[in-house]
Batch of 4 targets.
Target 1
Amino acid sequence: MKNKIHACIIDDQDDGESISRLLKNEFPEFEIDFQTDSIQYASDYLSKYSVDLLLINIQLVNEAAVEVLSKFRKSSSPIIFIADSETSAIQAIKKGITDYLLKPVRNLDFVLTVNKAIENFNKNKIAILNNSIHNKINLPTLQGFKRVNIDEIIRCEADSNYTFIYLSDKSKVIVSKTLYDFEKNLSGYNFFRIHHKHLINLEHLKEYIKGKGGQVVMADNSVLDVSIRRKNDFLQKIA
């Protein structure tokens, strides 16, 4: 027997396009944990619980829907949108939806799209597992190297061809590598370069202070400038 896959359905359309019917008929291994016609109820539910797949059949991807998507995007789970037109589908994808189906939905198209979503979901789970196993980094020192957990790194600061690494135990490691080297290696671990001198771990971000570029306050209480040209990308990243 296959393991159950958990789904959440948001459906405010009374047009015969029953997502739950299609899902139950074609994918008996799915468990529909939550179904609603209300974006607000879905938002409340997804704030508390995690699901493997989100299916949406709504008339308009508005601000409330975008808020739900932003919560759901934090996981690696796919989102499928049942769209009235190519235009609305493209707009939805820009908001973070993984894939879409056009109405009227054919069974074959539905099966192929859901299979593709689950395949991608499983690949992401494997990647996350691999990251959790290999979430350490070697920091070269004069004596050899220091091996640390990546989530212990609060921030990296450039100093010419050297980089200062600030750790959560309040220690600092000086490494003879450029900040660019660390940016390449750590970008997949929720690090963001806010300035030509600063690469920060967003998990250790405490506060953002408005300004021309603004400033961030980190877990070690350091206050760092955000460059003007990186400000918009930074704010989008943490939204």
Target 2
Amino acid sequence: DEGAGHQERQYLERGRKYPFLLVSNHPHFRVHAQHDDVTWFREIETCKVTGPDGYKYEPVWVNPVDAGKLGLSTGDVVKVYNERGAVLGGVIVTERIMPGAVYQDHGARCDTIVLGEGGLDRGGANNLIAPTATTSKNAHGEVTSGFLVNIEKVDVFALAEQYPEAFGRDYEPDCGLVATARVVDGKEGE
């Protein structure tokens, strides 16, 4: 039995606007955001995708059929979004995901560009765009493993011009955001 707010089915009205089912599992190379800074994990091809700006993005697997329709190639950066907000990710075109679905692990480390509902996260923390309603009125579980999204290719250099402060944070590709990136005005940031 669906919860009142759980409308994450492709055949429902929302499926026209958000036609992809985001499949999101626990990550293979970390425990939620823990170990996201392990350098040898970040070297693994399916752990992170290096974007044209040198940033290591959370992978988004896209079937070749969908990638062809959307003009996507492995290494492109996409915005994965719905009405709750958006996250960025690096494309891996693969037959390992079926058409109509995309895959991105949940629990990535946040690297927020725009805060709040309708925001944008560079780190790929898709928990931020997951439904807040529980899975069922009979079971109070999170709905982070499958929900509706749309995807589109983005120009990260244009985003960097639009949000220079967010894209100018201290960052090391081998380990991610460094501690000084989370310090604001001499105090620990959010």
Target 3
Amino acid sequence: MELINIKNIYKSYGVNDSKVEALKGVSLKINKGELVAIIGASGSGKSTLLNIIGCIDKPSVGEYFLLGEDINKSSERELSKIRNTKIGFVLQYFGLVSSYTVYENIELPLIYSKAKNKKEKINNILEKLKISDKKEKLPSELSGGQNQRVAIGRALINDPEIILADEPTGALDKKTSNQVMDLLKGLNEEGKTVIIVTHDDNVANRCDRIIKIEDGIIKGEKINEKKD
């Protein structure tokens, strides 16, 4: 089932002499349940592409369909709802609120939610990610890997269909990076569509498909053989 369909997207910032073309005619399809890596050097446009997929930014030119919906026609209120219910974000430096506990950070997306059994949902996530014993700790009291687990927990709390991870292992050592990738692969195996922006070949090679972007243009892609 086609989940994401991006057609001939351009994205520019600034005007006149300061104008920067971040994306130059990118077209891309991603099916439900895929585990995809987007690779490229710093400044290649990969994070810009992820922000457009995540409805954080809109293209200057081009079309974006998410589950058949024309995202370019969505209001800010509709985009906010999509970001809160259909998409979970995992960032390189975790993006946690330093003065909030682990429990409170995971709870954040639920603040304006009418979901029932919030406490049960949070405790289930804490248990799933093996950080139940850390729920009263602050981010400063945790290791990098533990903080990334909290960030993943926050991304999962509204049970989104899509997980977008921007350099999720960039601030971690190799062992912890592998543990975080194990988690993301496990979520994919449970049915989540996972899209990872990375410059790490080891991370990319654990994905089903690798999309290479250079200077705002998709230069090619590779299908990895299923392992395990």
Target 4
Amino acid sequence: MTAAKPSTAAMSPARMGVLVMLLAMFLFSLNDAMGKWLVATYSVGQVLLLRSVVALVILLPFMWKTGLSALRNVERPGLQLARVVFSTAEVFCFYWAVYFLPLADVMTYWLAAPIYVAAMSPFLLKEKVGPIRWAAIGLGFVGVLVALTPSGEVNPLAILVSIIGTLAFALMVVTGRTLRGTPDTVLVFFQIAGALVAGIVLAPLSWVTPTVPDFLLLGTLGVVAMLAHICVNRAVKLADAAAVAPLQYTLLPWAIILGYLFFGDLPRPLTLIGAAIIITSSFIIYLRETRARRAAALSTSGSGEIS
């Protein structure tokens, strides 16, 4: 009898990483759609409270594995606190904005975050930004202006809250880059804890006792969010970041699909045009940053020259 040959159809880690990242983006989109559904009945503070409680319950075993001492011996406590403030403001603004705006519109505004990060990095992180990236940043801001063009059906306050939320998200990313020595689980723990504190403060102001199905849905919101974060972390371990990072733009088609199926929302044409410009700009920025990192690595190893 001939020995069975190993299957040549086995999936490579890189391909598995791509699939896991796609799953993560779907979970994030599902989380956003569920959040929009829930804030139609419950306050943002109440959603933050119950979502965060469940997320922390799920996260605690991972924290136990990392070591609870990591929570006491964190680097740069002041910057950690600032990041928590930014992350809490970002999630509050997102849930508040999706109450008034179509999911695809809000997601378009949030996709502009890499543009803000690139624009902030020379001043806050002392990173060098060349003319091509500055041109891409400028193009991205044009896309933002196009997407933000108001119509009679758009709530201007909701757009303002979206801008604040996107800026808070960008600042969260920038501060996260300066806290590279902090384990991911610790960063996520602080992030969820900040949202929990905000929920504890805000939820009693407009409490609505959830029905059993809604309570389960609020709990599921935290589960889905944690699974999404776990999938992202797993994806970047299985595949190169260059292969999985651009997949974040699949958030937009999912937002359009889920927004239409659950809420009957259709994005405005200007929103779609602005989104296309923003994605193009962000992709250029990402390619330039990837090239710069590779050049820096070659320079450090002495095996190549920076072009």
